[in-house]
Prior knowledge:
This protein is α/β, with parallel strands linked by helices. The chain folds into two domains: 2-176 and 210-241, Rossmann fold; 178-209 and 242-309, Alpha-Beta Complex (UDP-galactose 4-epimerase, domain 1), CATH 3.90.25. It contains ten helices and 16 strands. Strands 3-2-1-4-5-7-11 form a seven-stranded parallel β-sheet, sandwiched between helices. A three-stranded mixed β-sheet has the order 8-10-13. Helix 1 links the parallel strand 1 (2-6) and strand 2. Helix 1 runs parallel beside helix 2 (40-49). The longest helix is centred in the middle third of the chain and has 19 residues, at 145-163. The relative contact order is 0.13.
Amino acid sequence: MRILFTGASSFTGFWFARALAAEGHEVFATLQGSADAYEGIRKQRVDALASTCNLVPNTSFGAASCFELIDSQSSWDLLCHHAADTTDYKSPDFDVLKAVGNNTLETDKVLKALGDRGCDRILLTGSYFESDEGAGSGSMPAFSPYGLSKTLTSQIFRFHAENHGMSLGKFVIPNPFGPLEDPRFTAYLMRTWFAGKVAGVNTPAYIRDNIPISLLAACYVSFARGLQSGQGFSRMNPSCYASNQGDFATRFAEEMRPRLGLACELDLAKQTEFTEPLMRINTDDVSNWPGWDELAFWDATAEFYREALSKD
């Protein structure tokens, strides 16, 4: 397939685009900036993609450069819209309407332009932070303003996809972790352990759905490959390690300890504040996914952090 892929410099975007290319698909991966403008872990991801994907710099979804890219090819098979406005996504002041505007800029015209070149399938990345996604406690509202922006983005794409007679697949992401991750929870654990300290877990009671990134990428490729013309709307909500965060941190420590020769100690706090929903998980269990090597994933994760952090 010839694929237009947005958001390839992100953690999940990198793994998805690379996995699609590894399957033999021709991936045109757009970058918002120039390829040499990225820094840190994002630069590592962009540099790694250069040998497997056609990188298209200075191109945002719906911008003039996006239409130039579409026009540069005689045909397209699939749009993978992974990019999303995540500026200050954890802030309660996250600008929902601005984010939705950026995520869906000229959606109708983009889909028409792709449709004119034979594309009738869209794969949209969603989040279990959205309203009514996965399973959880309470009435399942959007998890946050960012989650609300993703909810509205999904609805807008579904509206336009139906109007253009395109199949829309929604791939809902839980909490991915692994090599080349942004500095989030497991990266914090590893930095702390490599510094010889005890890692504190302040919210061990929250029930979340953590998934190895290589497994998530395998699911994404399978879902993309399975999208069919005339299919309408479909969804995949991959789930793996659905548990409270204390148990997940303990699992992570147990996997890293023998591989790294570190103490990997944890201090699980007694959680008393619950400003977020107690539980939010996905619903499609993929823990026994055919062909995925769990041991190899843990080995690769340990080796990545060994190389990255032993230099510090």
